[in-house]
Design a protein that fits this description.
Chains A, B: It holds the Pfam family HTH_5. Chains A, B: InterPro entries: ArsR-like_HTH, HTH_ArsR_DNA-bd_dom, HTH_MetalResp_TranReg, WH-like_DNA-bd_sf, WH_DNA-bd_sf. The structure is a homodimer of 107-residue chains. Chain A is mainly alpha-helical. Chain A has a single domain (12-92), classed as Arc Repressor Mutant, subunit A (Orthogonal Bundle). Chain A has five helices and two strands; from the N terminus they run ααααββα. Chains A and B meet through α1, α2, β2 and α5 of A and α1, α2, β2 and α5 of B. Chain A binds a DNA duplex (30 and 30 nucleotides) through α4.
Chain lengths: 107, 107
DNA sequence: AATTAATATCGTAATATTGCGATATTAAGA
DNA sequence: TCTTAATATCGCAATATTACGATATTAATT
């Protein structure tokens, strides 16, 4: 037990859930919001801003990267992260389309 | 360890994350989609449709109810669930506004 | 009153997530 | 070359989530 039974759901359902899931942590919301406040890209300031250990922040960044939502660019020994706007818009559209499609008449 | 450190994030970040989190499971996506295909409200058909144990489905329904997303109406010994359209639209707007606000110029 | 059907809740096992210290790794700078 | 700074990854502990059987609960039906 304890495993999500992905097999019994279809691709769309699993993908949608995965998108929502990655966005379902306040640290990851905070990271995205913080990056968006900076005109230029960010690096280790994220760690200081967020207030979690460096290892933890790195892990959250990894999950955001897994959606393609963040791009990282190496600048010497620093990493510069930014939001991939194309993916961002894609995801927004996808979630919206879920919301629109799933509207229903109530009781 | 293992506890999400909600204290270090603000109300908005925690609430947004919570919304995303509840939607971040394929069974809950499937439940919402299934309810939306029925004109009238649904009951225990959900259990049969989803293919998870009754107890598990009931738990997922509870989480959706925790957002106010589902309304349950008692009809004899059956429960009739439907999507609360007002809350549905609210959440859609809220997530959209997050997506719009968090747009940013990239690297 | 007893039975049955529909649902919720409890308890628990399996697994996943969160968070962090310790440890790589890599590149700039002394 | 040695040091330092920035980041990623590993390993683990604490907690949360997922799933389900068993057991309530409640209302219709017999």
């Amino acid at each position: 037990m304890g495993v999500t039974k992905s097999q019994i759901f279809d691709k769309e359902q699993n993908e949608l859930a995965q998108l929502f899931k990655v966005l379902g942590h306040p640290a990851r919301i905070a990271i995205l919001q913080y990056i968006s406040t900076q005109n230029a890209c960010i690096c280790n300031d994220i760690v200081e801003e967020i207030g979690l250990a460096q290892a933890t922040v790195s892990q959250h960044l990894k999950e955001l990267k897994s959606l393609g939502l963040l791009q990282g660019e190496i600048e010497g020994k620093k990493m510069c992260y930014c939001i991939n706007l194309e993916v961002w818009n894609d995801i927004q559209l996808r979630l919206n389309s879920f919301f629109i499609t799933t509207k229903t008449n109530c009781c």
